[in-house]
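Treating backbone geometry as a discrete language has practical consequences that deserve illustration. The sequence in question and its structure tokens are set out directly beneath this paragraph.
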Amino acid sequence: MTAPSGRARTLVRVFTQRFTSTRRGARLARQLALVELHDWGFPESTALSADAGLLVAELAANAVRHGRVPGRDFELKLTLLEELLRIEVSDARRDRRPAVQPHAHQAESGYGLRIVDAVAADWGVTDRIIGKTVWAELPRRRTAGTLGMGTPVRGVQPAGKLRLPARP
């Protein structure tokens, strides 16, 4: 795994847990992440916790749906740094790389990574010896021009009106 670029970051806390590659495992990963964040001082009512819960849910669901190998678990890792929260979900399938799918009118699935891309300040994929890790980062503090806990406002015009994408 590559180290984060930029200036040095001070580690505050780390949580790592493996879950079964099932829908129940994905649900438990989200719930346990929220409990851990609460213990770290970020109750569910905070924007950081809400955004993190959404990201864990999407990444864990993708690990179960697209990264599942029978008999192998997926792993959740939360790393709290001074400036950000890094969420990592690792699965055993290196060959199935995540990619943001183009908008499909009235599609019932395929929006997970679009949500991750919209909520996370940054996200990506790193290879492991077995499988891959999909990671996402959330700033700990709000800054001007952001939604949630540091999510950049995309598509906002200077007048503050949201520009909606054209429908096909």
